[in-house]
Amino acid sequence: MQRLKRYMVIEHCTPGTKAKIYERFHQKGRMLPEGLIYIDSWLEKDGNRCFQLMETSNRSLFEAWVDCWKDLVRFEIIELGEKPNKEA
Description:
The longest helix is centred in the first third of the chain and has 11 residues, at 18-28. The chain starts with a strand and ends in a 9-residue tail after the last strand. The chain has helices spanning 18-28, 61-69; strands spanning 5-13, 37-43, 49-56, 73-79. By secondary structure, the protein is of the alpha+beta class. The chain contains two helices and four strands; from the N terminus they run βαββαβ. A four-stranded antiparallel beta sheet has the order 2-3-1-4, covered by helices on one side.
């Protein structure tokens, strides 16, 4: 089994789509494919960006998920590294 890697996903709302995003989310949920795991999320103060912490052993699973939302949201998907060693 491959090791899970963590990702920070930054969602940028397309202008004028916030209501549609929430409507779809309430109707269909996150629509994550099996193997893509949601951990937590935070909204920017003005609500135009959402930062989601996720993990998966298969980065290609993001493609299916992004396809469900790309008409409303632009995505940045950033693979996270290990925490820096305090002694370094």
